[in-house]
User: Fold Flavin reductase family protein from Halobacillus locisalis.
Amino acid sequence: MLIHHDDFKNHDMSKLIKGAVVPRPIAWVSTISKDGIRNLAPFSFFTVASMDPITLCFSVGAREVDKDTLANIRETKQFVVNIVSESLANQMHETSKAHASEEDEFNLAGTKAEGGSFVQVPRVADAPVQMECELDQVLEVGKGNLVLGKVVGYHIKDEVYYDQDKVDPHKLKPVGRMAGDYSYIRDFYTLPNEDLPK
Assistant:
């Protein structure tokens, strides 16, 4: 099947895109409002934008623009990207729900917090990796917003760190986002690989 962009309106392109661009890493973004209310929300349109300076980016979609995350980042210019491990997946899911602005998602999800070392934003204490960021810019892309933040602090659990600045993927146990579900990321292989299906 071929779908021309003129025919996109006749298809659920959201499902077709999200079903093909998988598995996606999840940025579990913690922020704080100017009034001190802690917020925590996951975003799966997430990647590294630059390594010099080290810059992360995640997209706040059109349906998510009313989330507290974007408003808090615009106000404080700070956020933390926490990596979701399997043991935190249920807590992450709870924070994906629409909660009132005055609610503290850390409390609602039963998620332990620790203060930031370089930003005034709490980190997910049990996340294997936590990256403190200062806002670089917010770019409007269509009806969405692309948030870019420079990493100013990097936290990694001792059990995940190995062999001179490597992250052990077996112990990281990251959660991948599929179309509507999630995936384990546990099996790894190198290339070339003659065992792959032809």
The chain has one domain: 24-184. Residues 68-76 form the longest helix (9 residues). DSSP finds five helices and 13 strands in the chain.
